[in-house]
Every structure is written in C-alpha cells, then in structure tokens.
DNA sequence: CTGATCTACAACCATTTGGTTGTAGAATAG
DNA sequence: CTATTCTACAACCAAATGGTTGTAGATCAG
C-alpha cells in the first residue's frame, strides 16, 4: 500500500535488491508465473533459507509480494516496484536531456558585446 | 571502450553502484557539470578517500569516466552506462507486457471442444 | 627549490551481505 | 493421529561494503 514513499532508503533498497543475479531471476520468474518460496528454492543451487532471504530482500524493496495460500507462500511480481525504478531512471535521463539543452544553448549563444572568447 | 559486455557481473556493478545516495548524487552532479575528485569531495561530509572510492565504484560500473587534466582528475557522467541500466529496466517491463498479453489470451480463449474448465 | 594541492593506495575497522545449519510451528497427506 | 511439507527465524561464518587515517607520488604556485 506504500503510496509513493521513495526516500533515499527506499531507492537504496530497490537498486540493492536488483544488484544480485539470483534476485533478478526471481523477479523474472514471478512476473511470468506464480511460485511458492520452495518452488523458487528448487530452481537454484542454494539452500531454501538462502532463497527465502532473497525473497525477503525483494519484498522489502517492494519488487515482489507474498500471499499465504494454505501452507505455501505465493510470491508474485509487483509491477509498481519496477515502475518506480524505471521512473527513477527516467529522471536521470531527464538530467541528461537538460544538459544537452544547456550545451545547445551555449553553442547558439551570440556575443552581444564585443568581448570575445579567447582562442 | 567496453562495447556491450553486460554480463551478470556488469549488471551487478551497475545496480550496486546506484544503491547508494552519495553515488547517485555524484552521478547527477557530474552529468550537469565537470568536477574534479576533490571538487566532489568538498560537497560531502566524508573524507576525500571515501569520495574517491565512490567515484571508483561508479567508474567500474561505467557510470562515470575520469580524465586527467593537469594534477586534477576530471569526472564526467557516462551516458552509455545509464542507458544500459535503462535498457535493462525496459526488458523487465517487456516481461510484464508479455505476461499481460498471455493473460489476455487466456481470457479471450474460446472452448472449441466440449471439455469445459471445471468450476 | 619549496611548499601546497590533488590524487592514489594501503591498512584498518564496523557493519552488511550472502551463504550455511538447525530448530520450531503451521498446514496437508495418509 | 502421525508423518511430511512448507515456512520462519535464529545463530553462525566469510567476504564485501563504506568509512577512517596515513603515506607517497605528481603537478602547480611562488
């Protein structure tokens, strides 16, 4: 339900969560289909507890969500989380756009006074 | 010069590098203007060496590049690096699109034989 | 030349991370 | 009821991370 609390700590958690190949693979998998935690654990050459921790990291970063179903915990992808990362990246691209615009302005600048740029 | 070696380790480095607020701020700054390492260091409440390490992390992730100028080292933003991150995020969005399409297919599915889905 | 500045890097330290094993509770199967 | 499965969590460990101080080499200013 987290509306849009993208403070530094939240952004840290998002990027940190994506900085591991196992976790990125989990994100891909649970986006395309449903997996229980043990179903995911069966896919990787590591212990159940390790996968459980990875899922917990992704959950705290709001990249996936869990829902109890019987004795299983179903993991699903959380599109909002990914969209937030994307939005962040868009902001950086926007900064680049601003920079490009500023450079274009400088190049288009016409010297109104007689002071010339040396060289 | 790294053409497009986006292996797991490279992706790890990209996301890991962005998972720190100081480093994200450095990326913003050096995108908009030029900074020497010590120029950057003056901006943060930490030692020169700490900032130097942050820049090194960003450089290994190809998010910034350094260029020696006199006794200074000028840090600049590397647009390619950011574009790579963005491209990665686009891939995840594409996976979501596929999922949405798949779900739409299932909903649109018409039973051609008489075998009905139970319930 | 001398001193100041900028950088690089090593050594160290506390905390976090990514993994393990083990224990225990809750839900299902037989 | 009993055994199995699925999950949660604690305790532990090695390695990485983010910070520090200190030393030393280059370059610039006077």
Description:
The structure is a homodimer of 119-residue chains. By secondary structure, chain A is mostly helical. The first copy, chain A, has a single domain (8-101), classed as Arc Repressor Mutant, subunit A (Orthogonal Bundle). Chain A has five helices and three strands, in the order ααβααββα. Chain A has helices spanning 8-18, 21-32, 37-41, 48-60, 79-108, and strands spanning 35-36, 64-69, 72-77. Chain A has a three-stranded antiparallel β-sheet with strand order 1-3-2. The longest helix of chain A has 30 residues, at 79-108. The model of chain A is unreliable at 114-119 (pLDDT under 50). The first copy, chain A, binds a DNA duplex (30 and 30 nucleotides) through residues 16, 20, 22, 36-38, 46-50, 52-54, 57, 68, 70-73.
Give the N-terminus to C-terminus distance of chain A in angstroms. Answer: 59 Å
Low-confidence stretches of chain A: 114-119
The helix content of chain A, as a percent range, equals 55-70%
CATH topology of chain A: Arc Repressor Mutant, subunit A
Strand proportion of chain A: 5-15%
The count of strands of chain A amounts to 3
Q: Average pLDDT across residues of chain A?
A: 89
Order of secondary-structure elements of chain A: HHEHHEEH
Can you summarize the main beta sheet of chain A? 3 strands, antiparallel
The shape of chain A is elongated
Biggest interface and residues each: A-B, 29 and 29 residues
Q: Assembly state here?
A: homodimer
Structural class of chain A: mainly alpha
Number of helical segments of chain A? 5
